[in-house]
Amino acid sequence: MHRMPIIDPVSHQYRSRAPLSPPGNEKDIPATIDVEEDSWATALTPRLAQFVAVARHEHVTRAAQQLGMPQSTLSRSVARLEHDLGVALFARHGRTVSLTAAGRAFLASVERALSEVERAAEAVRADADPATGKVAFGFLHTMGSETVPELIRAFRADHPRVRFQLVQNYGEAMIERLRDGDLDLCLTSPVPDEPDLVARRLDEQKLRLVVPDDHPLAVRKRIRLAEAASELFVTLEPGYGLRRITDALCAEAGFTPKVAFEGEDPETLRGLVAAGLGVALLPPPAVPRPGVVELTVTAPRAVREIGVAWLDGHPDTPPVAAFKRFLLSRRGQLLLHR
User: Fold this and answer.
1) Separation CA 182–CA 137 (nearest Å)
2) What is the largest CA-CA distance in the chain?
């Protein structure tokens, strides 16, 4: 037999539209108990497991023994449940009971509800397990080809059964998912400075000016960004961290970039540069792309900081805490520097 959780009865005071008459003669049950609209779950949940135990045993004493509570307390709890519902769930036959038609209908639904609660509890316990739990981890598109796979490979050398729920997105979207509780940690750039977040700088990545291989600047190895002031730029859309960095660097160099295209993927931008649509400020590619030349920017200092962020005050499960410690231990070694 499946053990039901022990749930002690609690007293409730509720307000309702009409008083209900108790189906039994329990003297200690108030003549009227009001229930606020839409509050049935709050009112009934503590007594559902007790109801199921009595229904299965068809005997209050045996059910009380299973639940580890006094028989008189269980009797009062079941009577209060019937009183609150305004329906007789049991027919009494001396020391035994049997379900009424209403009780049988209620039992089927209650068992399904308690099974859902059981599954939910097991799921959250499994996600928090130190050895096999889950980490919800977000990261930038540009971190997906090399950095994040290498991080997970290295972490799982010591935590082989920890599961990852991965989300690849741009920085602002991941920050919102942190706030919504969908992510435990995110790897992002720029490193956020928000009062409800904790963020730690992990590394920095040089940005390069990418030009078509037949462009007049392609014969150069280095360039001051101001020399590209007249060029058309292909950039990420507003809201992306790399777009904010591009705009800030161009402003520092003394110009506002003329934008020919706004996209969502850095490698798409590289392809459009190769097609001659414009130039772009991008981090190094995972694999060299034909058709482009990547120039070192000497001024201003063209880098982006990469950091990890999490929600301030949000308690970590053991697997999340372990992965957070691992990420912080990789300061200065997060990226494959080229």
Assistant:
1) 9
2) 100
Q: At 180, is the pLDDT very low, low, confident or very high (cuts 50, 70, 90)?
A: very high
Residue 160 and residue 162: Cα distance in Å, rounded?
A: 6
**Distance from C-alpha of 105 to C-alpha of 178, rounded to nearest angstrom:** 42
Separation of alpha carbons 157 and 149, rounded Å: 13
Whether the predicted pLDDT of 178 surpasses 60: yes
Q: By three-state DSSP, how is residue 3 classified?
A: coil
Torsion angle (degrees, nearest 10) of CA 113, 117, 123, 129: -160
Assign 15 a pLDDT band (cuts: 50, 70, 90).
very low
Q: SS3 of 294, please?
A: strand
**pTM value surpassing 0.90:** no
3-class DSSP string for 117-170: HHHHHHHHHHHCCCCCCEEEEEECHHHCCCHHHHHHHHHHCCCCCCEEEEEECC
Q: List Cα–Cα distances, 317 to 164, 309, 320, in angstroms.
A: 13, 16, 5
Residue where the block lists tokens 């020399």: 227
Question: For 188-234, what is each residue's pLDDT tens digit?
Answer: 999 999 999 999 999 999 999 999 999 999 999 999 999 999 999 99
Tokens 């920890």 found at: 162
Using the structure block, give the residue that is written with the tokens 């014969």.
219
Cβ burial of 15 (10 Å; 0-12, 13-18, 19+) is exposed
Cβ contact 291:212 at 8 Å:
yes
Distances 24 to 32, 73, 78, 138, 263 between C-alpha atoms, Å:
14, 15, 10, 57, 70
Q: Which residue in 10, 28, 29 sits closest to 20, CA to CA?
A: 29
* Local confidence band at 336 (pLDDT 50, 70, 90 cut-offs): low
Give the pLDDT of residue 44: 62
Question: Which residues lie closer than 8 Å to 22 by C-beta, 6 or more apart?
Answer: 29, 31, 79, 82, 83
Q: Residue 59: which residues within 8 A CB-CB, separation 6 or more?
A: 95, 96, 97
Q: Count Cβ atoms below 10 Å from residue 116 Cβ, excluding itself.
A: 10
